[in-house]
Write a structure and sequence with these properties.
This protein is 49% helix and 16% strand. By secondary structure, the chain is of the alpha/beta class. Strand 3, helix 9 and strand 4 form a beta-alpha-beta unit. Helix 2 packs across helix 4, helix 3 crosses helix 4 and helix 10 packs parallel to helix 11.
Length: 289
């Protein structure tokens, strides 16, 4: 019932002008910050680890800013899943499209870090390109179905569940579909190594360099930033990385984390801080959450 009510609200709210929807989302975010105690603690723990130069008051301000844009992104998925293509194209502008065009026709991995605008980036790119991606099944079967349908609306897209792992991703790359790939979460110790993220050892999967080497694919980062008020989103595509992957998988994984860290510093409130990024700890180290 909760999933149905939530989806109905998202469907209705998408009819609002984006400037109004943004204010509703930000207000919802402040409510979530007050009520979602566990996620608030996760967010503040992450910020304390990654921004030790900020005092407790400054971290709370940053956490509230994060909840505001996070809630906005949740409500604005209604736009992505049900609005007309022309509206989506108008709301999400692409900078650096020429970098994708330059690599078309060969295996390509679009590195998409977990910023709040990642769904907006997928929707906008799917208007122009037939892609592939990996998704995590949701607890609600209804929400899972709506999410899949929303992401498959345009073009001829392929979605593979996380359970299919590298096999599904490799299939998309063999078809020369750009792989929209999100490898910057803590998925546990399997296939992960500890490399720094904001100076903190973080369990990081090594699939990006392994996939790139397996498929002979270029890696091209794509980062979507949520703009203020009713201005929509900016999707910035960067040049494909040179000399990647190399011969050292740890160095390749460090390079990925360092790039993401640079982008986080540009808009720190928009990274997905409510995820338990440091859940997996080295042997002998106590849990953080």
């Amino acid at each position: 019932m909760l999933a149905r009510l939530s989806l109905a609200a998202m469907w209705l709210l998408r009819l609002l002008p984006l400037a109004v929807l943004a204010r509703v989302g930000e207000g919802f975010g402040l409510l979530l910050y007050a009520l979602a105690a566990e996620r608030r603690r996760v967010c503040l723990t992450n910020l304390a680890c990654c921004f030790p130069d900020l005092n407790a008051s400054q971290r709370r301000v940053l956490a509230r800013r994060h909840f505001r844009v996070l809630a906005r992104s949740i409500l604005e998925r209604g736009l992505l899943w049900w609005s007309r293509r022309k509206r989506i194209e108008a709301l999400i502008r692409i900078e650096g499209r020429e970098h994708i065009e330059h690599e078309r026709g060969q295996p390509l991995i679009l590195l998409a870090p977990h910023f709040v605008g990642l769904d907006a980036a997928w929707s906008r790119l799917s208007c122009d390109y037939d892609m592939a991606s990996i998704y995590a099944n949701q607890k609600s079967a209804l929400f899972n179905r709506v999410m899949r349908e929303g992401r498959l609306r345009f073009g001829n897209q392929r979605l593979y569940s996380r359970q299919e792992g590298v096999r599904g991703a490799a299939t998309g790359l063999r078809e020369h579909r750009p792989l929209y790939y999100l490898p910057d979460m803590d998925y546990g110790p399997r296939d992960a190594i500890f490399v720094p993220f904001f100076g903190v050892p973080a369990a990081t999967i090594t699939a990006l360099p392994r996939l790139a080497k397996l498929a002979g694919a270029k890696v091209l980062p794509c980062v979507a930033r949520m703009l203020p008020g009713g201005e929509g989103y900016e999707l910035r595509c960067y040049p494909a990385w040179d000399n990647y992957p190399g011969d050292d998988i740890e160095a390749d994984t460090r390079r990925m984390n360092a790039f993401i860290e640079e982008r986080v510093r540009e808009c720190p409130e928009q990274y997905f801080w409510t995820h338990k990024r440091f859940k997996t700890r080295p042997d002998g180290e106590s849990k953080w959450y």
